Amino acid sequence: MGARGDDAVRAEAVERALARLGLDARCALLGGADMWSLPAHEAIGLGRLVMSDGPAGVRGEHWTPDDPSVALPSPTALAASWDPELVRRAGRLLAQEARRKGAHVVLAPTVNLHRTPRGGRHFEAYAEDPLLTGVIGAALVAGVQDGGVGTTPKHFTANDSETDRYTVDVTVDGTTLRELYLEPFERIVRTARPWGLMTAYNSVGGTTMSEHHELNNQVLRGEWGFDGFLVSDWTAARDTVGAANGGNDIAMPGPDTVFGARLAQAVRAGKVTEAVVESMARRVLTLAARAGLLDGAPPAVAEGALPPDVDGEALARELAARSFVLLRNDDVLPLPTRPGRIAVIGRAAARPRIGGGGSAEVFPTRLTTPLRALRDAVDGEVVYVPGPDPRERIAPAAFPLRAVLRDRSGAVLHEVGLPEGQVRWLGALPGGVAAARVGSVELRGSFTPGAGGTHQLAIRGVGEFRLAVGGRAVFDGPVLPEGSDPGAAFLNPPQRVVPVELAAGEPVDVSLVYRMPPAEGLLAVFAVVAFELGHREPVRPAEDEIAEAVAAAADADVAVVFVGTTDESESEGADRATLALPGAQDLLVSRVAAANPRTVVVVNAGAPVLMPWREEVAALLLAWFPGQEGGAALADVLTGAAEPTGRLTTTWPAADEDAPVWRVKPGADGTLPYEEGLFVGYRAWRRAGTRPAYWFGEGDGYTSWSYDELRVVPRAFDARAPYAPLAEVTVRVRNTGARRGRETVQVYLSALGDDPRRPDLTLAGFAVVEADPGEEAQARVLVPLRAAQNWDGASHAWVTRGGMRTVRAGRSVAELPLSAVLEVTPPM
Ligand code: BGC
C-alpha cells in the first residue's frame, strides 16, 4: 500500500481507538506514565511509547554505563559540516539507536539560535543563522524519521540562553521572532514534517510557551499546517487549563502531571472543552500509530522499508573529522609521515570532553582518547605532559569503580562497573532495580597514587554520604544544596572536599556510600540518583606544570596542545560568565608556542572561546565536543588521512566585550528583551564594524580553491511556497591545491536598498563540493523564496518586495569574491 493509503488506514485506526475511549481514558493518555514514557492502553491495542534524549546520541530509558549509546559529536559540530546529507545519515543512526533501545521518539534536534556566544547550551544548537539552523535541523529530522522514529525539534521557541530558564520572559518584536527564532521551526515543519515539537520552559511576550495559544495553535498549527503533537519540556506544563487550551498535548514527566485526572476534572468544571481533549488524544494516538504502537495502524515506515543498518562507530568518526574547523595552518598540518617527536600537552588529550553536559549526555559505547589514537597513528615518539588543571572543582575520579546497590537491610541488589566516579541515573536504575527498594549506593574502587602528598577526595551531590579511605571514614554526614533552583541539585550540585595524605605507589581503597532518601513523592515512582566521587592528585603550582610542558615542547619536533572548556564553564543549566578559557590555559599555549614554532592547538569546546594567542601558533583546529570517536578522527585529521572540512556556524569574538549580544540575564521584572532585533551574529558584527577573531563561515581544509564564476537564474515562484526556489545559483570553483578536497560554497543575498533597519547581507544557501587537484566543480545552490522575504509587522504577513538584489558567493561571510544581480519580480 502506498503512503497515502497508509495515512488513511492509520487515521481510521486512530478514530476507532478514540471512539472507544471515554473522557478519563483520553486524559490518561496525555500525561507521562514515568520519566520517559506514555502509558499503554491494552483494551484499544495501544502500546507504551518511549521518548528519549537526544541530539548527540540516544540515551534510552537508562542513563547508565551498562546501557551505552553511540556518542556523536555535539550538534555544533554536526552543523559545522554544513552538509545536510551527512546530517541526515546521522539522523538515521539516531533512529537505529532508538530502535535498539526501544525508544519511539528522539527529543531532538535543538534548533534554538546562537543569539549570544554565552549561551551555556550553545553546543547543543546549530548556528547563529536561522537558514543554516533550519536546513541542518530539517536534515536531522528527515534522517531520524526515515528510520520510523519520531522527533521533537525544540525548544519552541526563544529558548536561546539558560539564565532563569524556567521563568525568563523573552520580549521580542514580531519581525525578529518570525525572521530569526521561528524561522528554523517553520522550515522544519513545512519541509520535514516532524511528528512532534517540544514547547520551551520560557515565556514569550508574557505567556509561557506550553500555554502559548497564539504561537502553538494559530501560527504552528494554523499557518504552518503542523499535524504533530506538542510535548512540554520536562516539567514545563504547569497549569492544566492553560496547557490544554494553549496547545500542549503531552505533559512530561509523569506520573503526576497537570493532565490525566486533573484534565478530566477541568473538563467537568467547564474550563476545557471535550473537543480540545479529543484533539489532544487524537494527536497522541496518531503519534502511536506512526510509531507502530497502535493495533490496526501501519507504522509510518514499514519494517521492510527501513534504511539499512549503519556502522555507528564508523559514522561517528566520519562526522567528527568532517566537523573539525581548521582556522590557521602555517604549513604544519597535516603532520609529515615521520613527524619525529611529538609533545602532546593538555588534560583534554587524555581526558577529552566528548559531549556537552546535561540532558544531551550519553554513555559512549567505547572511547579512544586523542592521546591513545595519536600514539597508535603516528610513526614517532609521543611524549605526554598534562599541564595545569583548568578545573576549579575536582573532576570525577578517573579510576574504574563499581557501583553496588543495596537494599535497606544491606543485601546487594545489583552491581555495575563505572568508568569514572560519576553516577547520574535518571528515571531508571542499573539492572532495572526499583528505586523504592534501594537503601544505599556505594561507589568503590582502588587506585595507586602517582605522587605522594595531599590528595583531595570529593563528594559532589545532595544528601547523606559516607566516604572511607583504606577502610577509615573521613566524612560521614549530609551535603546540603546551595540556593533554591530545583534543577540545580541535579545539574549543578555542591562539592565537599576532603584532603587525605597518601604515599606514592601504595594502592588505596576508596568507598563512597550514598544513603538513599525515603522513596516518597516523585522518588517513589522514578529514580533520581546523581552524585560524584572526585579525586585530584597533589596539586603542583601551575608554573611548574607549565614549565614541564614548555620543556617537553622545546625538546620536540612538534607540539600539540589541547585546550578547552570544562563542565564548570560550559554546560546545560547555566550561561557562561566569560568566553575565556578556564585556568591557566592561555598562558600554557603562549609559553609552549614561544618554545616551539611548530605548535598546533586543538580546541575541545562546544562553543566559542577566546584565543588571545591565536596569531602565535602554527595551526589551530577546532574539534568541538567530538563524540566517542573524536580521538580517532583527530588522529585521522592531524596525520592527513582525513581533511578537516568544518566551517564556523557562529562568529567567534576576540574578546568578551566585542560580542554584539551579551545580555542573558532577565531584568527585575523577569523579562529578557531581545533589543538587538534582527542584529545577531554576523548581521550584528557587520553593522558594528568590529572585527571578530573568526567570521561565520570561516574554515580551511588541506587544499585551496579559486572562485571563478557565479551565475544566477531566477525561477518563477509561488508566494505560498516559501522554501521553493526563487533563484538557482551556480558557482564554479577550482581546486588550486595539491590534494583532493571538499569546499563549502556559501551564497549570500543583500538587502534591498540600504535600509539601516535590516542586515545588509544574509545567508541564502550553500552547497558542498569535492574536486581533485586542478579540477573544477559546480556548486548548485537553490535560494529559497524565504531568503528574500521580510515579515511585515503592520500587515502581519510575509512580503516579497520586487527590486534588484545582489547575490554574493564565497568561502565565508567575510570572503565573498563573486557577485551578480538578481531581479526579484513578485507575482501580480
Ligand atoms: C531539557 C530538554 C530535555 C528534557 C528531558 C529538559 O531539561 O531542556 O531538552 O529533552 O529535559 O531530559
Describe the structure.
The chain is an alpha/beta fold. Helix content is 23%, strand content 25%. The chain has 19 helices and 35 strands. The strands form nine sheets. A six-stranded mixed beta sheet has the order 10-25-24-23-11-12, with helices on both faces. Strands 14-13-16-21-18-19 form a six-stranded antiparallel beta sheet, with no helix packed on it. Helix 5 (130-146) packs parallel to helix 7 (183-192). It is globular and about 80 Å long. The two termini are 41 Å apart. The protein binds beta-D-glucopyranose. Beta-D-glucopyranose is lined by residues 53-54, 107, 154, 233-234, 359.
**Helical coverage, percent range:** 10-25%
Major sheet summary line: 6 strands, mixed
- Report strand %: 25-35%
The SS-based structural class is alpha/beta
How many runs of DSSP E, i.e. beta strands? 35
Which word captures the global form? globular
Mean pLDDT: 95
End-to-end distance: 41 Å
**Uncertain runs:** none
Give the radius of gyration.
27 Å
What is the number of helical segments per DSSP (H or I, 4+ residues)? 19
Which sequence of strands runs across the widest sheet?
A: 10-25-24-23-11-12
> What ions, cofactors and ligands are bound?
beta-D-glucopyranose
What is the chains' assembly state? single chain
